[in-house]
Design a protein that fits this description.
The protein has about 260 residues and is of the alpha/beta class. It has nine helices and seven strands, in the order H-H-H-H-H-E-E-E-H-E-H-E-H-E-E-H. It has helices at about 5-35, 40-65, 75-80, 90-95, 105-120, 160-175, 190-200, 220, 245-259, and strands at about 130-135, 140, 150-155, 180-185, 205-210, 230-235, 240-245.
């Protein structure tokens, strides 16, 4: 599609990102070479470089949104590309800055709806109650875990990053066995057999629930989950204390709490 003012503006963003896109493309062959050589140190080094490039691209986009807060490009970029890496307060700051035609776009409307959802599940808020069926068909309530630290783990058997993270979570769960810590897996699967197979294969011995509705999972929608894996850590009173911790950061936080 050509000929619109917004399309011309978006093309200008592409020009600004070209250099960083080229840098990212150059990393792929080097990473594949390191992976084939099983050079974990080199892979980690390249991954760190990629994270830095991603950070630079995000900053370029943020600046671009501020320059286009009065047209459709600003809301589009925040909702479609930036919101996954923004805090609720950052999203709200961008939304409050929209003016003129930008405020009337569908992306501004969806962003404000997302902000309202995420404000209800922000750090420091009591996690909203929900109940959902486990594999045996029994209803499990969130509030039934009160009195223990709880990790709500949004995942799915079809999610590669989730399956790669599962061994870290299993190791942590076994490490703190017998202490005041539990996990509740909320699956975005849509096939019961695949869900149960994923649980068994990855040895996920904690509680699990799902309505088998894929991205329409009602708890995922209630909690504003837009990507997985996604974790929410609650204290013993059900208050949200951390979000999206994984790997060693998750382990360190849980050990700090239970010890």
């Amino acid at each position: 599609i050509t000929g619109s003012v917004c399309e011309d503006i978006m093309n200008g963003l592409g020009d600004k990102l070209q250099a960083t896109n080229d840098e990212m493309q150059a990393l792929y062959p080097a990473y594949n070479e390191a992976r084939q050589a099983n050079d974990e140190a080199k892979m980690a080094e390249i991954s760190a470089q990629a994270e830095e490039i991603n950070h630079n691209q995000t900053e370029i986009k943020k600046a671009f949104v501020k320059d286009n807060s009065n047209n459709g490009v600003g809301p589009y970029l925040v909702y479609r590309e930036l919101r996954y890496s923004l805090s609720v307060s950052e999203m709200k700051e961008f939304a409050d800055d929209f003016k003129g035609s930008a405020k009337k776009t569908i992306y501004a409307t969806m962003l404000n709806k997302t902000i309202k959802t995420l404000e209800a599940v922000d750090i420091g808020k009591v996690a909203p109650e929900f109940e959902m069926e486990n594999p045996e068909g029994e209803l499990i309530k969130l509030s039934s875990f009160r009195g223990k630290y709880l990790l709500i783990d949004f995942w799915a058997s079809w999610c590669g990053p989730c399956r790669r993270e599962n061994p870290n979570v299993v190791k942590l769960y076994n490490e703190v066995a017998g202490k005041d810590f539990e996990i509740l897996g909320v699956s975005l699967d849509r096939n019961r057999e695949d869900w149960l197979k994923g649980i068994a294969e990855d040895k996920l011995t904690w509680a699990h629930v799902s309505d088998l509705k894929f991205w329409d999972n009602r708890v995922a929608k209630q909690y504003g989950v837009s990507s997985i894996p996604h974790t929410i850590l609650l204290d013993k009173e059900g208050v949200i204390i951390e979000k999206n911790l994984r790997g060693e950061k998750l382990r360190e936080k849980v050990l700090e709490l239970v010890n």
